[in-house]
Please model this.
Amino acid sequence: MRPAAEALAQNRSLPRSRNLYLVPYMLWMVLFVFAPILLIVYDSLFDVEGAFTFSNYVHFFTPVYMKMTFSSFWYAFLITAFSLLVGYPAAYLLTKTKHKQLWLLLIILPSWINLLLKTYAFIGLFGTYGAANAILKTIGIGQQQILFTDFSFIFVSVYIFIPFMILPVFNALEEMNPSLIDASRDLGASPWTTFRRVIFPLTINGVKSGCQAVFIPALSLFMITRLIAGSRIITLGTAIEQHFLVTQDWGMGATIAVFLILAMAIIMVLTGTRGRTRR
Model:
């Protein structure tokens, strides 16, 4: 009876010990997630002079900010779409290579380099006297304005974010049962039908995770937008930067940040995977 009583007491103490392990996590969430969000919401309720007002939220729905919002979502969609178009075939080819882990490491390795350094490197490549224009001159096309264009902005953004698309898709492809593909081929399905009816549906969770990992940070870009696109592209991220650092209108900048947080939360809900899988 005594060992049974001790085992029962030990089992009762397990939930308490598990709850203690959650304390650092909850403390981190409160200090570095919830508290900053509450501070942003608080700052959004004041104007430049420090007076309490809701005018910032009214001003956000003016045509100027609505155009910035549309521009932000449009470029984030383009960056995500191109990342998926390039990343999915790349991830699929990685699963077929011999040294897949080595190739995956080489794809992820550039993400360890500082973002600002990579951005300045592309400024040198796409500049007037950069390597890209030198190649265009060599093949007879001539010098072109590559920097400060939509092409350069999307190209650099896709290059930076594409590892975050390849990794979840690669993991989803690796977890897929290869016998299902063999069964599809044995039943006479074409490669395109096999991809459309078998491979892609089984890896949709990886695609959702990749789109989430790319779309959300692309929605709030400001440094790449400023350095690569210049003044051609103005998004909500650059608007926040201007309000906080130039105009000192922290209330309006915080208001834009509140709407960005809401948009990101909605995207996470829409692209999140359900706990129960469909049969």
